[in-house]
Design brief:
0% strand, DNA_ligase_N_sf, ATP-binding, 66% helix, DNA ligase i, domain 1, mainly alpha, 208 residues, globular
């Protein structure tokens, strides 16, 4: 799956507050995900690259993200800072400055670079994070880059809880909630819904 496709699902989820509608949108998304990306999609839905119990953060402030955007768009950071003061949303600034085009990356490719950013440490780590984020921004569609920036800043607020995701996983496979108890039991044991989904995709309820 391309990241632009995932970004479109983010947009649809962002536009509703109805749980049933969210479940339908997520079930449709999950149906299109293969076993190698279902866990990554679930982590990204929560703005993360790991389960909640792993305290992994991207470690990038608004200022560092602005630096990455200035590098990606080849514009002075002072200009971006001025626009940011006006509209207050770095995701929308990405839309304004992004040159568009047909560039895109897969969900797995984006996830892997985000995972790398979250784990960069030591001397030179700030510049390395900025450079990797600039690469991603330049490699995605405008909407994809918009949601990417929100993920890195911890501002991807889609209003989706774990119960909704578990319902959607069941709907994606059985068209109803009958598989939810199996998924929930496995989640209660592991506390890792991404891992549970991957196992479920690979082997069904028997593997849970």
């Amino acid at each position: 799956m391309f990241f632009s496709e995932l970004a479109e699902y983010f947009r649809r989820l962002e536009s509703t507050t109805k749980r049933n509608e969210m479940t339908e949108i997520l079930a449709d998304l999950f149906k299109k995900a293969d076993k190698e990306e279902i866990d990554k999609i679930i982590y990204l839905l929560n703005g993360r690259v790991a389960p909640e119990y792993e305290k992994i953060e991207f470690g990038m402030s608004d200022k560092l993200v602005l630096r990455a955007m200035a590098l990606a768009f080849i514009v002075p950071i002072s200009e971006l800072e001025r626009v940011y003061k006006e509209i207050g949303d770095l995701g929308e600034i990405v839309i304004r400055y992004h040159k568009g085009g047909e560039k895109d990356l897969s969900v797995t490719e984006v996830f892997n670079v985000l995972y790398e950013i979250a784990h960069i440490s030591g001397e030179g780590s700030v510049d390395a994070k900025v450079n990797r984020l600039a690469f991603l921004i330049n490699s995605l569609t405008p909407d994809g880059a918009k949601y990417l920036v929100r993920i890195v800043l911890g501002k991807l607020r889609l209003g989706i809880g774990e119960p909704t995701i578990m319902d959607a996983l069941s709907y994606a496979k059985a068209k109803d909630k009958t598989l939810r108890p199996f998924i929930e039991r496995a989640f209660n044991i592991t506390s890792d819904l991404g891992y549970v989904a991957k196992v479920f995709w690979e082997g069904g309820t028997e593997a849970l």
